[in-house]
Amino acid sequence: MNSRAAICEDCSFLLLMSEGEADFFARLLAKHAPNAYFAHAGDKASLMFQADNLPGTARLIAFCTDVIVPAAVLDRMAAGSFNFHPGPPERPGYRPAAFAAHEGGASFGITLHEMAVAVDTGPIIDCERFSVPPPASEEALNIEAYRRLLNLARRHARSLADIGSRPPPSRERWSGRKTTRRDWRQIQSRRKLGATA
């Protein structure tokens, strides 16, 4: 999805997310930046291509993606890069809902943060936490987190659309162990072994 209907040479947004989510964000941000240029990327290859072809000052917005953004792309985003993370600051990294469900945590949440080269380390703009009635499945946690992330996007649309400034950081800080794909594969392997024991 590339839109040049009302292009603004000094205002462009690269939306790293699904196509449907990109349509949602483009409509949301266009209310505050009607002349902006929007480009969509759904994977690393399209992210690299779009980043090299954006007009003017660019801002990256990522939403519920597991694509790790290269440093070269972050450097290209003069207006900053921001990520909607489907987990609380206490659960950085890969598939936070899966690990929360596996460990049986009593709470979960969502986080909006500025991106840095190291995954889930950038300044936190906003977050929400909510209680988890046990037993909570990964699917249930993801559904509630997704619903809240959409509302968080609506709440911060104006500041994210303002290419001339950056949303101020909160006092929240990342904590907890950062989970990885390897961690998730190990959990899956243990589950398979338990099922066949």
What do these coordinates show?
- By secondary structure, the chain is α/β, with parallel strands linked by helices.
- It has a single domain (2-196), classed as Rossmann fold (3-Layer(aba) Sandwich), CATH 3.40.50.
- It contains seven helices and seven strands; from the N terminus they run ββαβαβαβαββααα.
- The chain has helices at 19-30, 44-51, 71-76, 96-103, 138-155, 157-161, 181-196; strands spanning 2-3, 12-16, 37-41, 58-63, 81-85, 107-114, 124-131.
- A seven-stranded mixed sheet has the order 1-3-2-4-5-6-7, with helices on both faces.
- α1 links the parallel β2 and β3 (37-41).
- It is globular.
List keywords for this structure.
7 strands; seven-stranded mixed β-sheet; alpha/beta; disordered N terminus; 7 helices; Rossmann fold; 197 residues; globular
Derived from helix and strand composition plus strand pairing, the structural class reads: alpha/beta
Order of helices and strands: EEHEHEHEHEEHHH
Instruction: Give the mean pLDDT.
Output: 92
> What is the CA-based Rg, rounded?
17 Å
Biggest sheet overview: 7 strands, mixed
> How many discrete structural domains?
1
Summarize the structure.
This protein has 197 residues and is of the alpha/beta class. The protein is built from seven helices and seven strands; from the N terminus they run ββαβαβαβαββααα.
Task: Give me the secondary-structure topology.
Blueprint: E1 2-3, E2 12-16, H1 19-30, E3 37-41, H2 44-51, E4 58-63, H3 71-76, E5 81-85, H4 96-103, E6 107-114, E7 124-131, H5 138-155, H6 157-161, H7 181-196
